[in-house]
Design goal:
It is a single chain. This protein is of the alpha/beta class. It has one domain (2-230): Rossmann fold (3-Layer(aba) Sandwich), CATH 3.40.50.300. It has helices spanning 42-50, 72-78, 95-104, 113-119, 136-149, 166-182, 194-200, 218-231; strands at residues 2-13, 16-27, 31-35, 57-62, 65-66, 80-83, 154-158, 186-190, 203-208, 211-216. The longest helix is centred in the C-terminal third of the chain and has 17 residues, at 166-182. The structure holds adenosine-5'-triphosphate.
Length: 241
């Protein structure tokens, strides 16, 4: 079932168009990987989907309902949650408080403090700790838990592994694999590590200068075509030594 449908979305910063005519679909239980170089427009796309950045034109449908005109908080209440690049937690509040506040602003659904702690067990010993004192990996887990507390139907994850140690990244993706296995959420994931993006995503889109340059199943497209799209090289334009 199509959970998120984005049609001809355009968004910009002043005179700069950062998202150009982007259309995509994400189904319940599916992971869509968004790949693209710095400045390709991934964060602007996510922020526009979450409603914290205005769209110039285009529509965003959640389970068939047009949410394009809704405020960010109404979108969270409808089921779109974003884990932003840089995490943005309330650093002078405990892990428990960060999670509980998110729960108060979301939808009703299966995710509660208990089920989030089951899915992200690394948070259990940290409940009373102020998030300001946590490591990068721990903060990222809190950010994901916070998003889950709103019972999202679409979870947007923007570079969740940025700045984490290899061990923390491994732990984080194990937890995300657990979420994926539940099959009840559509996930859109920006991941700079191409191998990991290809391995974790059911489908990928490659963004280049704001538009979608390539889309498909990672194993069908292959790493070379994805790398070419990442760097803006049409296949066949360059000879590889
Ligand atoms: P990154 O991986 O570096 O976050 P990105 O793919 O997420 O890159 P965006 O951050 O969406 O890309 O940026 C898309 C374009 O919009 C870039 O040209 C960027 O310079 C520009 N841009 C992003 N944020 C702003 C802003 N607040 N004001 C002006 N231009 C911006």
């Amino acid at each position: 079932m199509t959970m998120l449908a984005v049609n001809n979305l355009v968004a910009g910063h002043g005179l700069l168009t950062a998202v150009r005519d982007v259309s995509l679909r994400v189904h319940t239980g599916e992971v869509l990987g968004v790949i693209g170089a710095n400045g390709a427009g991934k964060t602007t796309l996510f922020r526009t989907l979450a409603g914290v950045h205005p769209a110039t034109s285009g529509t965003i449908l959640l389970d068939g309902e047009d949410v394009s005109a809704l405020s960010p908080s109404r979108r969270v209440a409808s089921g779109i949650a974003m884990v932003p690049e840089g995490r943005r937690l309330f650093v002078d509040m405990t892990v428990r408080e960060n999670l509980q506040i998110a729960g108060e602003n979301g939808r009703a659904g299966p995710w509660t403090l208990e089920s989030v702690l089951d899915a992200l067990p690394s948070l259990l010993p940290l409940l009373k700790v102020l998030t300001g004192g946590l490591s990068g990996g721990q903060r990222q887990a809190v950010a994901i838990g916070r998003a889950l507390m709103s019972n999202p139907r679409v979870l947007l994850l923007d570079e969740v592994s940025l700045g984490l140690s290899p061990v923390a990244i491994e732990g984080l993706y194990e937890q995300l694999a657990g979420l994926k296995a539940r099959g009840d959420t559509a996930m859109v994931v920006v991941e700079q590590d191409l191998d990991r993006a290809m391995q974790f995503s059911d489908r990928v889109v490659c963004m280049l200068e704001g538009h979608i340059a390539l889309e498909g199943l990672p194993q069908v497209l292959g790493k070379q075509a994805i790398t070419d799209a990442y760097f803006g090289l049409a296949q066949g334009d360059i000879a590889y030594a």
